[in-house]
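LOG
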Amino acid sequence: MSIRKIAELADVSITTVSRVINEHPYVSDAKRQRVLDAMEKINYVPNRHAINLSNGHSETIGLLVPYSRNSCYEQLIEGALEEASIKGKQVMILPTYFDENKEKDYYTFLRDKTLDGMIITSRTQDSQFLNDLQKYGPIVTTELTSQKSVPSVYPDRQKIYQDVFDFFF
């Protein structure tokens, strides 16, 4: 079913139907209700991907991991899923198994706007590649990179072990 049919049933313009589907605020309550009633009458379910494309965001972050069967990555994945749930967002888990071609394929999700951003936990690409990737959307790595413009969140292992050995000795 098309939005033309909904517009016809609700006696409104196609633009009004589009605004209701996209939750645009500039629609009167009466018109909004007529559109919603028409949608229900014909069992119309909006295509979420089309809406996201129209709005310019997917509400989804990609989480690039080498694999998930490791306690470190399991905790990272669980933390990302929990936070996404709190924020009402989604996480797409992207396991690479350290395959450079698979990793590059996943990066196209950012370029193609399938993802709003990407968290990269392990990578085969160099830091300059990540720097260039940022033109397609925000990325954050969990590894230190040589590019200051690429945000990184990581434990400073050298400092941690210095503190540990200072404690012991």
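LOG (cont.) second protein
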Amino acid sequence: MRLAAMLLPAVLLPAGGCAYHDARLAATAETSLVGLSVADLDMCAGLPTKSERIDGQTEMRSYERNVSTNSGVNITFPVIGGGANIGNGGYCHATFKLVDGQVAALSYAGDTAVAGADDAVCAPIVRTCVERQAEHPDAARAVASRR
């Protein structure tokens, strides 16, 4: 029992650190990708799982990520009213709202938390897009100034 108590922080700290970083990246995407063109979105996120045109100016695009692996550590702690899952499973449904061919909004749904970090499961969907925006901040500002 003592060995397990000593090893638990060694297992949880790295998982929590990665999850926290991924959650911050997903949160950054919600604002930094606004103004991204549909062509650039296709280049960095790939083609959507689903898309639907709402009207002449508005389109919704969905990207899905389902992580259900047995690798890594998956620990469930009982909590009143449910449990807290510390592991690498989860599901993310990222939906981009496009208006006039540019990202107007991004939201996440599903079982997106890892190690208590909301939306961490969603980070791989938007990682390349956020990194490209960070590499080319002038392009993002040019789009924002046209609005």
